Amino acid sequence: DGGITQSPKYLFRKEGQNVTLSCEQNLNHDAMYWYRQDPGQGLRLIYYSQIVNDFQKGDIAEGYSVSREKKESFPLTVTSAQKNPTAFYLCASRPSAGGSYEQYFGPGTRLTVT
Amino acid sequence: QQQVKQSPQSLIVQKGGISIINCAYENTAFDYFPWYQQFPGKGPALLIAIRPDVSEKKEGRFTISFNKSAKQFSLHIMDSQPGDSATYFCAALYSSASKIIFGSGTRLSIRP
């Protein structure tokens, strides 16, 4: 089965702890993305990566960090510097940042920080 | 220039009715306009998409109408069903772009 896997589906953390969200894809896509979605809100871009070992900040990168050491993996770390980390996090991938239009989303991880 | 404005924010339609969601854009470089459907607790999924060289695209009960001169496009859901209740996002991008620009979303509820 080809697709995007995000784990876990639900994640709970105490305030002040860093937490890493997993995103894996076996679609052989070059570009990967992280979005944040708050209740009743749209999709806000956190970080994106067009190729391995390279990534760019999106619209709301503060308090987050990413790495892209492998083509199939793009983990997102929510640091203690993120003031309101509780949200639904979506990972997405695309065959290539240029020349291809289709973007596919994973099932999401709901993070709750108390 | 990079924004896509979507309306309405929420919409309630009776079963069997027509649901209409509208989007407007400014950047004339956009050359692909997809619509995504998202059910609660799930990731968005591509529903239907159109390129600006056509004025309409239909897939089953879902139709995109595109007005290039007005820089507007809309999603029409014919014979709306309770199973269509979801959040819908319009989007826009151009082929060399690294990012997709999403609208703010419309929460659609179909009353039985």
Task: Describe the model.
The complex is a heterodimer of chains A (114) and B (112). By secondary structure, chain A is mainly β. Chain A contains no helices and 11 strands. Chain A has strands spanning 4-7, 10-13, 19-25, 31-37, 43-51, 54-57, 64-66, 76-78, 87-94, 104-105, 109-113. By secondary structure, chain B is mainly beta. Chain B has one domain (4-100): Immunoglobulins (Immunoglobulin-like), CATH 2.60.40.10. In chain B, a hairpin with a 2-residue loop joins strand 6 and strand 7 (62-67). The model of chain B has no long low-confidence stretch (mean pLDDT 94). Classes of the chains: A mainly beta (114), B mainly beta (112). The interface between A and B is medium-sized, with 29 and 23 residues.
Q: How many whole angstroms does the radius of gyration of chain A measure?
A: 13 Å
Q: What structural class do helix, strand and pairing data of chain B support?
A: mainly beta
Count helical runs of chain A. 0
Oligomer: heterodimer
Report Rg of chain B: 13 Å
Order of helical and strand elements of chain B: EEEEEEEEEEE
Number of strands of chain A: 11
Apparent shape of chain A: globular
Distance between the termini of chain A: 36 Å
What gross morphology of chain B would you assign? globular
Instruction: Average the pLDDT over all residues of chain B and give the rounded result.
Output: 94
Approximately how much helix is present in the residues of chain A?
Answer: under 10%
The total of beta strands of chain B comes to 11
- How many separate helices of chain B? 0
Measure the end-to-end span of chain B.
40 Å
- Please describe the biggest sheet of chain B, giving its number of strands, its sense, and whether it closes into a barrel: 6 strands, mixed
Poorly predicted parts of chain B: none
Largest sheet: number of strands, sense, barrel closure of chain A: 7 strands, mixed
Per DSSP, what share of the residues of chain B sits in E-state strands of 2 or more residues?
A: over 45%
